[in-house]
Specification:
Mean pLDDT: 90
Low-confidence stretches: none
Helix content: over 70%
Number of helices: 4
Distance between the termini: 23 Å
Oligomer: single chain
Number of strands: 0
Structural class: mainly alpha
Order of helices and strands: HHHH
Largest sheet: none
Shape: globular
């Protein structure tokens, strides 16, 4: 899990300097990757153990996370 595109999207979603639209776009792109690594990063966004994200970002991530999980079933 180095400098993959999934990781770049994850960092963009965490970036406080990124706009609302930019964060949402990063989360959507991360979910569209459809890989196990993307699933891992989406889970990190939903869980947000370090309280880095506002509530609205976690809600958006949760919606995309559920869709991504359903693809893996």
């Amino acid at each position: 899990m180095g400098n993959s595109k999934e990781y770049e999207f994850y960092l963009a979603a965490l970036d406080n300097n990124n706009s609302l639209l930019g964060r949402r776009r990063a989360i959507r792109r991360l979910s569209k990757c459809g890989t196990e690594e993307a699933l891992y990063y989406m889970n990190e966004l939903v869980v947000d153990r370090y309280c880095l994200l506002p509530d609205w970002t976690r809600r958006i991530a949760r919606e995309y996370y559920v869709c991504l999980c359903l693809e893996f079933l």
